[in-house]
Write a structure and sequence with these properties.
With 326 residues, the protein is α+β, with helices and mostly antiparallel strands. It contains 5 helices and 11 strands, in the order H-E-E-H-H-H-E-E-E-E-E-E-E-E-E-H.
C-alpha cells in the first residue's frame, strides 16, 4: 500500500508575468482610447439636445407672447439707454414701452413670471439689480457653460453682476453691428435694414403678418458666437450687459456674416471686434442651433452658403430655400 496515496500534491501557483501585465494594461488603454470619443460624443449629443430644448422653450415663449400681446418681443432701447427697466405704477411695462430687451420681455412666457414682475419699491433701482443678476437656465447652452452671472474683466459695464445669455434674437441682414457705436445699418439709427424678427423698440414690434417669407422659413432666435476662453469667468464685449441689455450684440446678432464656431482668444480690443461679436455661432461641432418663428428647432452648418443664411435671417425678401441647404 502506498502510504503517500492520500497526500495532496502541492498546487502550482499561477501569476502574471510582467510582460503579460503590460499587455493587459496596453489593451485596457486602447479600449479606453476607443471608448472615450464615443462617450464624449454621447455627452455632446445630450447637451445639444438640452440646448435645443431651451431654444424650443424660447420659441414657444415668442409665440405665447404674440398670442397674448399680438406682437413678438421687441429689442428694447439702443445700447447705453437701457440701464433701468421701464416701470409704471409699480409694475414693469411690456414691449411697447419697455427699454429692456426681448430676454426680459419673454420671462412671463417661459415660466419666469415672478422674476419679470419683481419690484422692490424701497430700492433705488426698484429691484433691477436682483432681476438682472438672476441667471435663467433656459438662456444657457450646456455645451458652453452653466447658468452664470458675473462682472469683472476689461469689458465690465456694471458694478453689480449681470446674468448672461447664450442666445440672440435675429436682427436681420444688417450689414453692420456695433456695441455702443449705434451703427446698426445704413440709417445709423437702425431705421433701415432691420429685416429680422427683433428690432428697436422705437420702430415698433414685429407681428405675425410681418413674416412675409413664412414662419417656417424665418429664424427667431439662435445661438450666438462667443469667446469660449473667457465666457465662463468674466464679461466680454458681447457678454457684459446680460439678457436684459438693450438692442446690441449681447442679445442680437445679424446675418451679414456667416455663422462660426466659438473662438479662444485673450480679451479682444475694441478695434478687433469684427466679425466676432456680430455672428451667430456656438461651441457645438460644425453647427449652431436656432428656433424658427413657427417654433421648430434646426441646426445650421457653419459652412452654410452666406446667401442662403441671409434668406433665413430676412423675414421678407421673398427668397426660398430648402432645409438641406442649411
Amino acid at each position: 500500500m502506498n502510504l503517500n496515496s492520500n497526500r495532496r500534491m502541492p498546487l502550482k501557483r499561477s501569476a502574471f508575468t510582467l510582460v503579460e501585465l503590460l499587455v493587459v494594461i496596453a489593451i485596457i488603454g486602447i479600449l479606453v482610447a476607443l471608448l472615450l470619443p464615443a462617450v464624449q460624443a454621447a455627452r455632446e449629443s445630450a447637451r445639444r439636445t438640452q440646448c435645443a430644448n431651451h431654444l424650443k422653450q424660447i420659441g414657444l415663449g415668442f409665440q405665447n407672447h404674440h398670442d397674448t400681446l399680438k406682437a413678438f418681443p421687441a429689442g428694447g432701447n439702443p445700447h447705453g439707454t437701457a440701464a433701468n427697466r421701464t416701470i409704471v405704477n409699480g409694475a414693469p411695462t411690456t414691449y411697447e414701452t419697455q427699454v429692456w430687451t426681448w430676454g426680459y420681455q419673454l420671462l412671463p412666457y417661459i415660466e419666469q413670471q415672478n422674476l419679470w414682475s419683481y419690484v422692490d419699491t424701497t430700492a433705488a433701482d426698484n429691484g433691477d439689480t436682483k432681476v438682472n443678476g438672476t441667471a435663467v437656465e433656459t438662456y444657457f447652452c450646456p455645451t458652453r457653460r452653466k447658468p452664470c452671472a458675473f462682472t469683472g474683466g476689461a469689458w465690465t459695464s456694471r458694478t453689480t453682476p449681470r446674468a448672461m445669455i447664450d442666445y440672440a434674437g435675429n436682427g436681420g441682414t444688417t450689414n453692420q453691428g456695433g456695441d455702443g457705436g449705434g451703427i446698426y445699418g445704413a440709417g445709423g439709427d437702425g431705421s433701415t435694414l432691420q429685416d429680422g424678427v427683433v428690432r428697436f423698440r422705437a420702430l415698433g414690434p414685429i407681428r405675425m403678418h410681418d413674416i412675409l417669407d413664412g414662419t417656417s422659413n424665418t429664424m427667431a432666435v439662435g445661438e450666438k458666437r462667443m469667446n469660449a476662453r473667457n465666457c465662463t469667468t468674466v464679461t466680454g464685449p458681447d457678454d457684459n450687459d446680460g439678457y436684459v441689455g438693450g438692442y446690441q450684440d449681447d442679445v442680437i446678432r445679424w446675418g451679414a456674416r456667416p455663422p462660426a464656431g466659438d473662438y479662444f482668444k485673450d480679451p479682444i480690443s475694441s478695434g478687433a471686434l469684427d466679425p466676432f461679436i456680430w455672428q451667430f455661432g456656438s461651441l457645438h461641432p460644425g453647427m449652431f442651433q436656432c428656433v424658427f418663428v413657427d417654433g421648430s428647432v434646426r441646426g445650421v452648418r457653419f459652412n452654410v452658403d452666406l446667401a442662403i443664411f441671409q434668406r433665413l435671417c430676412n423675414r421678407n425678401d421673398g427668397q426660398a430655400f430648402s432645409s438641406d441647404q442649411l
